[in-house]
Amino acid sequence: MPQLLTSLKQQHMPLAAMGLFVAMQLLRPTGAVVAVNATAADTFVVVAPPPPAVIVFGDSTADTGNNNFIQTLLRANYTPYGRDFSPGGVATGRFSNGRLAADFVSQALGLPRAVPPYLDPAHSIHRLASGVSFASAGSGLDDITAQIFSAVTLTRQIEHFREYTERLRRAVGGAAAAHVVARSLYLISAGAGDFLGNYLLFPIRRYRFTLPQYEARLVGAAEAAVRAVHALGARRVRLPGLPPLGCLPLRRAANLARPGDCDGRLNVVARRFNRRLRAMASRLGRELPGAEIVYVDVYRVLAEVIARPWAYGFEDAARGCCGKGYVETGVLCSLESALTCEDADKYVFFDAVHPSQKAYKIIADAIVHAASQ
C-alpha cells in the first residue's frame, strides 16, 4: 500500500480522490480492480473480477445438450448438427454446426470452451462448478411454450438451479458455493420460441392476449426469472434480446407478400419487445440489491451482420447451410444432410432458425462486451 500511495502522489491525484481510491481498494473483493482517472477525480471505473462460471437458462440458443436426456422430439444429437464442434465433429445436442454463444462467452472469460448441460449424468458437480446450462430447446419465457414441445420450462430450469446450488454447497462447502453463485455470469436467452412456436403457431395465447399484451406478459416472465435467480444468489445477469425474427430463413420463406425478404412486421414485434426488455433490465438493476442486470442488443448485432454479411466474412445471410436453407431445422436437417453446405462459416444461419457457430461467436462478443461495462 505505501508504494501505491507514492505512485498516486506522483500522478498528482487530489487528496480527496486518493482517500476514496484507497478506501475502495481496501474494501474491494479479492481479484477486483478499481481504477481512477486522476485528471477527473469524480470519475471512477470499477472492473469486476472474472466470474468463476457461466450459468445459462433459456431455449435452443442456449441448450448445450439437455434435451438429449428428456422425452422430446426437439433434439440435435445427430448429424449434421455438431459437425464442426471439434475435429471430426460431435453432435452434442447444440442446434448449430458447432458451439453456441454461451460456449464462446465461457472461453472468452478464461473458463472451459464448452458449457456442459445440467441433465447429462456424465458431468459431476465439480465439473459443473465452472459452468452449466439449464436451457432446453423448445422452451421459452412462457412455460406453455415449453409444454407444447415437451421441453423443460423456465420455471423448472430455475428449480434445477436451486438444486444445483444445494449440490454445490454439499460438494465444496458453503463459502465456496456462495462465491460461485454470487460471482458467476448468468445468461437468460429465450423469447423467440414464444412468438414463432407458440403465439403465431397455436391459438392458445392468441385467444387471450393481443400481441402487445403478450409481449408485456413475456417481459413480466423474464422479470420473474431474474428475480428468482437473484433470490437464489445470482447477481450478474445478462439478458440477450430477440434477434430480427423476420429475417430468420424460416420467416423469409413464410413471407407471402414478399417471398425471400425479411418480414418487417415480425421485426417490429422483436424491436418493441426488446425495448420493454431493456427498460425492465435497467429498472431491476436499480431495484435489486447488488444486482448488475444488463440487456444485450442481439437485434442490432445480427441486423448489421445480415445487412452486410461480406463485412463479417459471410456469403449468405438469407438461407441456412442445412438443406435448401429456408425450412429445414431439427429432424428436417437430418433428412437433408446430404445437401448440407460445404462451409458453414460462409452462412449466418446453420439451419432455418439457428445461427451458425461463426455467427454465435459474434453474438458472444457482444455479450462479453456487455459484461465488461
What is the averaged pLDDT score?
88
Radius of gyration, whole Å: 22 Å
Shape summary: globular
Low-confidence stretches: 1-47
Number of DSSP strands?
9
So, CATH architecture of the largest domain? 3-Layer(aba) Sandwich
Question: What fold name stands as the CATH topology of the largest domain?
Answer: Rossmann fold
CATH superfamily of the largest domain: SGNH hydrolase
Task: Describe what this molecule looks like in 3D.
This protein folds into 2 domains: 2-47, no CATH class; 54-371, SGNH hydrolase (Rossmann fold), CATH 3.40.50.1110. The protein is built from 15 helices and 9 strands. It has helices at 2-10, 15-27, 101-108, 125-128, 143-148, 154-172, 174-183, 192-199, 203-206, 211-231, 249-253, 264-287, 298-307, 331-335, 357-371, and strands spanning 33-36, 44-47, 54-58, 132-133, 185-189, 236-240, 292-296, 316-320, 347-349. Strands 4-3-5-6-7 form a 5-stranded parallel beta sheet, sandwiched between helices. Helix 14 (331-335) links the parallel strand 8 and strand 9. The longest helix is centred in the C-terminal third of the chain and has 24 residues, at 264-287.
